[in-house]
């Protein structure tokens, strides 16, 4: 009898549990259908913020689609291309029971969960909440109290950073040492610069967000690579700070195919910022390509967006500041120590204590800059000298001069013109008479342009193209195309003597192998480059670069070339520039062993006005065709 009663109790419990489970399933299905229908009524799938939460990008050709390439980021199999299917699949996922709450939709997709609850919850039903231990741990670690957009300056020695780099700093205190950096970067599988560029152009690298101590990024960019850092604190409230943190954690370890021109570090950060608030549409400003400096300008132009700006000078700038504080005699002492590695105790015989302190400060900054010391790295070339300097400096008990962290106003990236420009030049040519030239420069900055917001010693040009139209003959022809045109002319200063260099690959209508005066266009395909030196005298800069290259005009006309590049740049003000460049090359035709000389001269005066308009007058001479041009040009800069 007792066994029979126990059996009935067990049976009742099973039936009752099944009933409760069925009721829960029914209730969950009812709520699920309720929210799906409500989302349809409110057209949530068409809400602009929903597409931004899913990282949809507008395409010039075709419809918008998501840029996240990990399959698990989208709940629906068609979530990457269909906003409605992804919305309804997400709503259904909210009502699934996961054994591990960390893998529930609410925990995996916290930003879209928060927003959908704000849009759909009402007094009748609420989207269920879940405890997310792993998510809460990360939020507690980030502790977002502020957001800083960081720009690391142009670095020509690294293909991935030659146009600058942007990342985010999550501020959780008043000290950068405890803050976190949010960085998006490609994960390269090659050290070859050419392969890196090609793979980056065509999306063969996977890109990931990373979270790491901000101090690591300072060491990497400020010290190891000697790049200036500009910090733009954004004027976000606490709700917006939290929204950004949730979006960062939602993207998490999902990969995004890295494209050098568009889906790069800067675009992904703009897309993240767009998820914070429905009024943010930063990424919509860009379509074909995104360069980091332009993203700073776009965000800075948003009303009341920038709370403050802070500048962290590079290791090179820190040394140059210390060096300029020295007297000529103190500079001589510093250089003799570096050259001869003489005993530091000899300083006491030649300098008073205050001067010794200044020299030692300069030595420390120079060694750290020269050896690219970052973090816990130790010196190699100057290992013993650095230890001696530190010990000697500590014994002096003299406070160092404080280096001002004021941002150089004319170098701020937000102050410069946009990196893409189109221009129209009208000129008179002694051979071709009146002509028009249309020029398109996708990126970024040329030496003959005013330097406001850009480095004065760098020329960065990719895929620039010019078309020439002869007014008399009504003929249109290609004047030039520069695939890559890079020039770095850092001025010499003791005791560091940086090398100036250039690389130019493209095609131009040079008639470089011809001595005839015919005016028809013939393209010469070339690759050339060289290394030399540059000198700076206040507002005047001079550079000389020996050149070597290869040129091809036809099957019977190709060869090698040697020569030199000589330039003078005068900058009377940040919005004015006077540019003169002379290019002499001697060409050897490999087939018939004949030599040809070619002399090119380019002179221009340019003025930047209205923040985005460059006006220029110029004169150009080509000895191969004895062609002299005088003209006027207008260039419009845009994103």
Automatic annotation (TrEMBL):
<feature type="domain" description="DUF7840">
    <location>
        <begin position="412"/>
        <end position="601"/>
    </location>
</feature>
<feature type="domain" description="Lnb N-terminal periplasmic">
    <location>
        <begin position="135"/>
        <end position="301"/>
    </location>
</feature>
<feature type="domain" description="DUF7843">
    <location>
        <begin position="43"/>
        <end position="118"/>
    </location>
</feature>
<protein>
    <submittedName>
        <fullName>DUF4105 domain-containing protein</fullName>
    </submittedName>
</protein>
<dbReference type="InterPro" id="IPR057165">
    <property type="entry name" value="DUF7843"/>
</dbReference>
<dbReference type="Pfam" id="PF13387">
    <property type="entry name" value="Lnb_N"/>
</dbReference>
<dbReference type="InterPro" id="IPR025178">
    <property type="entry name" value="Lnb_N"/>
</dbReference>
<dbReference type="Pfam" id="PF25225">
    <property type="entry name" value="DUF7843"/>
</dbReference>
<dbReference type="InterPro" id="IPR057162">
    <property type="entry name" value="DUF7840"/>
</dbReference>
<dbReference type="Pfam" id="PF25222">
    <property type="entry name" value="DUF7840"/>
</dbReference>
């Amino acid at each position: 009898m007792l066994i029979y009663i126990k059996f009935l109790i067990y049976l009742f419990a099973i039936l009752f549990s099944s009933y409760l489970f069925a009721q829960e399933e029914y209730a969950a299905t009812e709520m699920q259908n309720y929210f799906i229908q409500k989302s349809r009524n409110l057209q949530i799938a068409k809400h602009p913020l929903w597409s931004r939460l899913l990282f949809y990008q507008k395409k010039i050709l075709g419809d918008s689609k998501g840029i996240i390439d990990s399959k698990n980021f989208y709940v629906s199999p068609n979530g990457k291309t269909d906003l409605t299917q992804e919305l309804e699949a997400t709503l259904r996922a909210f009502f699934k029971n996961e054994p591990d709450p960390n893998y529930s939709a609410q925990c995996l997709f916290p930003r879209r969960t928060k927003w959908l609850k704000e849009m759909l919850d009402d007094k009748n039903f609420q989207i269920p909440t879940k405890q997310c231990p792993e998510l809460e741990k990360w939020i507690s670690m980030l502790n977002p109290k502020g957001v800083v957009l960081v720009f690391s300056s142009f670095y020509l020695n690294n293909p991935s950073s030659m146009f600058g780099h942007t990342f985010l700093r999550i501020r959780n205190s008043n000290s950068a040492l405890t803050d976190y950096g949010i960085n998006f970067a490609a994960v390269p599988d090659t050290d070859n610069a050419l392969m890196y560029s090609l793979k980056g152009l065509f999306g063969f690298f996977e890109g990931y967000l990373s979270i790491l101590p901000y101090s690591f990024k300072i060491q990497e960019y400020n010290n190891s690579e000697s790049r200036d850092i500009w910090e733009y604190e954004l004027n976000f409230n606490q709700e917006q700070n939290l929204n950004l943190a949730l979006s960062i954690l939602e993207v998490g370890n999902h990969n995004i195919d890295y494209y050098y021109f568009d889906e790069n570090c800067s675009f992904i950060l703009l897309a993240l910022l767009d998820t914070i608030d429905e009024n943010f549409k930063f990424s919509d400003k860009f379509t074909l390509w995104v360069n980091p400096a332009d993203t700073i300008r776009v965000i800075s132009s948003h009303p009341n967006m920038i709370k403050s700006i802070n500048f962290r000078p590079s290791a090179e700038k820190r040394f140059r500041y210390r060096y300029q504080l020295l007297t000529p005699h103190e500079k001589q002492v510093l250089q003799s120590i570096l050259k001869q590695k003489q005993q530091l105790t000899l300083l006491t015989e030649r300098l008073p204590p205050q001067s010794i302190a200044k020299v030692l400060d300069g030595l420390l900054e120079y060694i750290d800059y020269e050896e690219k010391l970052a973090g816990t790295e130790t010196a190699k070339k100057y290992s013993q000298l650095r230890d001696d300097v530190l010990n000697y400096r500590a014994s002096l008990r003299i406070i160092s001069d404080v280096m001002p962290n004021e941002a150089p106003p004319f170098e701020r990236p937000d102050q410069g013109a946009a990196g893409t420009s189109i221009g129209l030049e009208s000129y008179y040519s002694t051979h071709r008479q009146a002509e028009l030239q249309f020029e398109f420069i996708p990126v970024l900055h040329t030496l003959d342009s005013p330097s406001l917001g850009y480095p004065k010693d760098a020329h960065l040009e990719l895929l620039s193209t010019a078309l020439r139209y002869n007014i008399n003959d009504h003929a249109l022809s290609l004047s030039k195309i520069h695939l890559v045109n890079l020039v770095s002319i850092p001025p010499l200063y003791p005791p560091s003597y940086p090398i100036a260099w250039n690389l130019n690959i493209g095609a131009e209508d040079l008639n470089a192998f011809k001595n005839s005066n015919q005016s028809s266009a013939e393209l010469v395909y070339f690759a050339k480059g060289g290394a030399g030196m540059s000198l700076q005298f206040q507002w005047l800069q001079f550079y000389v670069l020996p050149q070597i290259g290869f040129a091809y005009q036809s099957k019977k006309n190709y060869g090698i070339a040697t020569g030199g590049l000589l330039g003078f740049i005068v900058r009377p003000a940040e919005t004015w520039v006077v540019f003169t460049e002379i290019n002499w090359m001697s060409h050897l035709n490999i087939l018939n062993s004949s030599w040809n000389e070619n002399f090119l001269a380019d002179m221009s005066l340019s003025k930047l006005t209205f923040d985005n308009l460059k006006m220029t007058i110029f004169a150009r001479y080509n000895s191969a065709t004895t062609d002299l041009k005088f003209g006027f040009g207008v260039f419009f800069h845009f994103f």
